[in-house]
Amino acid sequence: MSRKCINKQDRLKVFKKLNGHCAYCGCSITEKNFVVDHIKPVMSGGDNSIDNLFPACKSCNSYKHFYDVGNNEDTESWGTFRNLLSNLTKQLERISIFKIALRYGIVKLGSWDRWFYYESLFFVKGNPANPDKVIRTFTLYEKARNWVLKNKSKYDFDLLVSDGRGRKYIIK
User: Fold this and answer.
1) What pLDDT digit, counting tens, does each position of 86-107 carry?
2) CA-CA distance, 94 to 14, in Å (whole number)?
3) How are strands ordered across the β-sheet holding 160-163?
4) Has residue 53 got a pLDDT over 60?
């Protein structure tokens, strides 16, 4: 598939998907400094549909390059961005200046739970005519739940909360 330009309207829709945050690391981004990232790369058959696009910071987009995001259960495949990041410590420990910085306590190694920022969000959906349309996005389940309870009478369909990991929560 050939790469096509993404128009300004679609670019803005992508930016708004995660309320000004990088889909991967979660850092704040602006409309001017974010990069549109293909979840499934074009060279792997991905397209320019909004569902296949995420807002990303330049660092994550550059490091992700042409890798597929991968899923959290796949710990064997090296061909995914998630596994590339999971093995980053091993690569860093080969660099002598990094080893020195570790020894002197200048840097500390932390663990990563293998979840990206977009997977930690909660989305309010429910429109039968457009089931993937996100009505609101929240960083905490309780906030999403409380918003649904407060606003459900304004909608002529049942609201549903789902998370970035594919789980769905029915609010009664």
Assistant:
1) 888 889 999 999 999 999 999 9
2) 37
3) 136-138, 122-125, 160-163, 168-170
4) yes
Asked whether residue 73 is domain-assigned, the answer is no
Per-residue model confidence (pLDDT) at position 77: 56
- CA distances (Å), origin 126, targets 49, 53, 137, 145, 166: 21, 21, 13, 13, 14
Beta carbons within 8 Å of 15's beta carbon, 6+ residues apart = 29, 31, 34, 55
Q: What is the mean pLDDT of residues 1-24?
A: 86
For residue 28, the model assigns a pLDDT of: 96
Residue partners of 38: CB distance under 8 A and separation at least 6: 46, 48, 52, 53
Average pLDDT of 133-145? 83
Query: Is residue 28, in this structure, part of any structural domain at all?
Result: yes
Rounded-to-integer distance, Cα 80 and Cα 66, Å: 9
Distance CA 21, CA 14 (A): 11
Query: What is the domain-level CATH number for residue 48?
Result: 1.10.30.50
Tokens describing residue 111: 């663990």
Q: How far apart are CA 27 and CA 29, in angstroms?
A: 6
Q: Give me the domain span that covers residue 147.
A: 121-170
- Mean per-residue pLDDT, 19-29: 93
Q: Which residue, of 18, 44, 64, is where some domain finishes? A: 64
